[in-house]
Structure formats: structure tokens, C-alpha cells
Design brief:
The chain is mostly helical. It is built from ten helices and no strands. The chain is globular. The model has no long low-confidence stretch (mean pLDDT 91).
Length: 147
């Protein structure tokens, strides 16, 4: 059984809507916290070795990855675009994990369920404003896949 065309279309539309959010600098979480977090932690992207103790609740892997990308592209907006692109496969990876776990459930229902991630305000904001959450979700889903 294959994923139907409607579900593929929804994936495309919801993926494009992330780029619309990126273009208009939208923080769908509504608090402005993702924008503030991005601006506050930007020095860590420019110099990840200067990880300060006041941010000790965050794992520095995100900042190392973002710093490597930033060193290559040397532009904040392109870094944001790349993180938005990196967030696109997360719902699909979630679908693959669901498909492995729930073999008896209709594949189209599982795919539609995985698209809910695109609608979560926190996910959308984290994808538009590169946040540790996207890095964490990506590695968490990859670990589920290999578990």
C-alpha cells in the first residue's frame, strides 16, 4: 500500500507554509520567545566554544551544528533557511517510525497523523527560528528509528 496523493499534497502544502512563516518572520508560538532565544543565543553560534554557564540547561550540540553551517554560509537568513529545510523531513521520519511500530494500521492514516507535527506552533517556530528543539526532535526520532 502506498501513501495517497492527497496526503502527499498536504505534506507539500504544509512544508511550503513553513517557508511562508520564514519569509514573514512569524513566531507561531505567539510569545516571541523563539525570536528572543535565537537573538540571545546567537553569540554561541558565532563562537560555540564560549558556551556560558547561564545557558547550562541547553545542550551545545545544536550550537556546534549551527556554527558549522554558519561558517559555511556566513549569513543568518541562509542559516534559518537551512534549518527550515532540515525540519521538513521530521514528519516523514516520524511517519516511518509509526509505520514500523503500527503495521496493521492503514498507512495513509499514519501519514496523515504524522503531518500533525507541521501544525504544532512550537515546531513551526523552532523550524523558522533555529532552535535546540528541532535538533533534539531530529535526533530523538532518528534514535527511535534505530531502536
Amino acid at each position: 500500500m502506498r501513501v495517497n496523493t492527497l496526503n502527499k499534497f498536504l505534506y507539500l502544502v504544509l512544508g511550503i507554509s513553513l517557508f511562508i512563516d520564514l519569509y514573514y518572520n512569524i513566531d507561531t508560538a505567539g510569545s516571541g520567545g523563539f525570536i528572543k532565544d535565537f537573538e540571545t543565543t546567537w553569540p554561541l553560534v558565532e563562537n560555540p566554544l564560549a558556551f556560558s554557564t547561564n545557558l547550562d540547561i541547553k545542550f551545545p550540540l545544536h550550537y556546534y551544528i549551527a556554527a558549522i553551517i554558519y561558517k559555511i554560509v556566513d549569513d543568518k537568513e541562509i542559516l534559518r533557511l537551512i534549518y527550515c529545510i532540515l525540519a521538513l523531513p521530521i514528519p516523514y521520519l516520524f511517519f516511518i517510525c509509526l509505520k514500523i511500530k503500527f503495521k496493521k494500521i492503514n498507512i495513509n492514516n499514519l501519514f496523515l497523523f504524522s503531518l500533525i507535527i507541521f501544525l504544532l506552533p512550537s515546531f513551526r517556530s523552532a523550524a523558522v527560528w533555529p532552535n535546540t528543539q528541532i535538533t533534539g526532535i531530529f535526533f530523538f526520532i532518528i534514535s527511535l528509528f534505530f531502536f
